[in-house]
């Protein structure tokens, strides 16, 4: 497919901007069941070994020096750096236990450290974690894999980037969020233009292949003018990728958000104006809208993968290396192996206790049935390629698409009439004005949100953020 320009239609956005999942997985995490049996995980890994697919590894490091009020991540806020080592010892145990089940020759095409703030740990602890990982898994010795890490630029030592490059990382994801001092004060997140610029320059000199910067719109005291100024600085720094995330104010779910003064939040109208202006500014700077808040340079691997029809989506967002089984380590992390999801305990005591007994720390999970797998394929095509080919799905899953999804196609008729999506002789194609509302389109194919499941419908607003 070819990349296209996003068109802004205020009327359609007003009508379709509802709450809904982000579809980093399907089925989504609320469907996971407690007490998921380890045997299901073991069987899935055995099938995975037989298939011989490459691996994606994720490591969750939950520590942060300070709290960012907007944050909804699983985190532990502490200034005591010594708290990291006992956790890392447990993480090393989990790596060793899981590696016993996995064929050692399988290549690791993707690796990601997230958090929290992964750079909370010391340089020596970073080296040791990567050494232990390389001891048990087949890491790439060159830059053929996509090995990335999330960093908080505020106060990060420049020399730490050299360490990250030394141990194998080739991509950085930098959480900037906003440069405006008033906004930073309101959310307790500080990083200056000078700090970020110095890190970006050092990253290029160290030979990192890609730099991604994250921003959030909808924070207190933001306006079109403040976001325009922040984006001017960002564009001047020339990152290969940029994410513009919607701030979802949900203090009933995330306690830290209770510290945000709601009176400072932009109105719904202003928030949409910020997004519209930002999209226009980024497209004018030659960034391509990949989808779901993500932008990238035309030559970036994400854009190339989308153009070639190979773009994928997982718990870390869009990915260029498809057909990987994801093994996730650390508290709250979610593995996606073969046809199952498995989530670790969300608190450190439970996580450490399981590992101290020599067992893997799985707390929740889900075994996907054939219908789940089929609908996941449809949703992934829509969310990654903005189209769905009936013949491809029908042949792959031994169904007649139009018969199997007759109810869903009927539900799409209002969206077709409104110009969000086109029904062609070959399948479905999302229009330029439908791309921003792709989450709403995908919800039609989400069996767990079907009109007949009233409980699911009622929980949408409580569980999920609005689309924009």
Automatic annotation (TrEMBL):
Q: Please list the residue ranges annotated as the Radical SAM core domain.
A: 49-285
Q: Where in the cell is it found?
A: Cytoplasm
The GO terms describing molecular function are: 4 iron, 4 sulfur cluster binding; coproporphyrinogen dehydrogenase activity; coproporphyrinogen oxidase activity; metal ion binding
According to its UniProt record, the EC number is 1.3.98.3
SMART domains, A to Z:
Elp3 (SM00729)
**Pathway per the UniProt entry:** Porphyrin-containing compound metabolism; protoporphyrin-IX biosynthesis; protoporphyrinogen-IX from coproporphyrinogen-III (AdoMet route): step 1/1
Gene Ontology cellular component? cytoplasm
Keyword tags: 4Fe-4S, Cytoplasm, Iron, Iron-sulfur, Metal-binding, Oxidoreductase, Porphyrin biosynthesis, S-adenosyl-L-methionine
Residues that hold [4Fe-4S] cluster according to the record: 64, 68, 71
* Annotated S-adenosyl-L-methionine 2 binding sites: 70-72, 116-117, 177, 189, 214, 248
> How does the annotation summarize its subunit structure?
Monomer.
Please give the family membership noted in the entry. Belongs to the anaerobic coproporphyrinogen-III oxidase family.
Q: What is this protein called?
A: Coproporphyrinogen-III oxidase
Organism lineage string: Bacteria, Pseudomonadati, Pseudomonadota, Gammaproteobacteria, Alteromonadales
């Amino acid at each position: 497919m070819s990349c296209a320009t996003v068109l802004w239609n205020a009327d359609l956005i007003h009508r379709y901007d509802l709450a809904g999942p982000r579809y980093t997985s399907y089925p989504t995490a609320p469907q996971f069941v407690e007490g998921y049996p380890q045997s299901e995980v073991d069987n899935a890994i055995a099938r995975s070994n037989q298939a011989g697919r490459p691996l994606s590894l994720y490591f969750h490091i939950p520590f942060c020096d300070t709290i960012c009020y907007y944050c909804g991540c699983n985190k532990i806020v502490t200034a005591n750096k010594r708290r990291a080592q006992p956790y890392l010892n447990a993480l090393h145990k989990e790596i060793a236990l899981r590696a016993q089940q996995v064929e050692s020759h399988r290549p690791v095409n993707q690796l990601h450290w997230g958090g929290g703030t992964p750079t909370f740990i010391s340089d020596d602890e970073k080296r040791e974690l990567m050494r232990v990982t390389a001891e048990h898994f087949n890491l790439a010795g060159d830059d053929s894999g996509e090995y990335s890490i999330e960093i908080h630029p505020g106060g990060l030592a420049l020399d730490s980037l050299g360490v990250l490059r030394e141990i194998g990382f080739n991509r950085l994801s930098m959480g900037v969020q906003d440069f405006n001092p008033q906004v930073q004060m309101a959310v307790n997140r500080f990083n200056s233009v000078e700090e970020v610029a110095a890190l970006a320059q050092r990253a290029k000199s160290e030979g990192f292949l890609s730099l991604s910067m994250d921003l959030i719109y909808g924070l207190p005291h933001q306006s079109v003018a403040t976001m325009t100024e922040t984006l001017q600085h960002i564009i001047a720094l020339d990152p290969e990728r940029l994410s513009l995330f919607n701030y979802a104010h949900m203090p009933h779910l995330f306690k830290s958000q209770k510290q945000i003064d709601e009176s400072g939040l932009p109105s719904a109208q202003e928030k949409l104006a910020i997004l519209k202006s930002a999209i226009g500014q980024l497209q004018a700077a030659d960034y391509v809208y990949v989808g779901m808040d993500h932008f990238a340079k035309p030559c970036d691997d994400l854009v190339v993968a989308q153009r070639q029809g190979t773009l994928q989506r997982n718990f870390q967002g869009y990915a260029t290396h498809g057909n990987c089984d994801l093994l996730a380590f650390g508290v709250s992390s979610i593995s996606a192996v073969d046809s199952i999801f498995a989530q670790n305990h969300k608190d450190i005591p439970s996580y450490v206790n399981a590992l101290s007994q020599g067992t893997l720390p799985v707390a929740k999970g889900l075994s996907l049935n054939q219908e789940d797998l089929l609908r996941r394929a449809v949703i992934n095509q829509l969310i990654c390629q903005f189209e769905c080919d009936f013949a491809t799905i029908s042949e792959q899953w031994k169904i007649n698409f139009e018969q199997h999804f007759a109810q869903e196609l009927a539900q799409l008729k209002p969206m077709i009439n409104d110009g969000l999506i086109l029904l062609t002789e070959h399948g479905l194609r999302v229009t330029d004005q439908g791309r921003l509302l792709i989450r709403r389109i995908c919800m039609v194919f989400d069996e767990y949100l079907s009109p007949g499941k009233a409980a699911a419908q009622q929980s949408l607003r409580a569980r999920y953020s609005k689309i924009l």
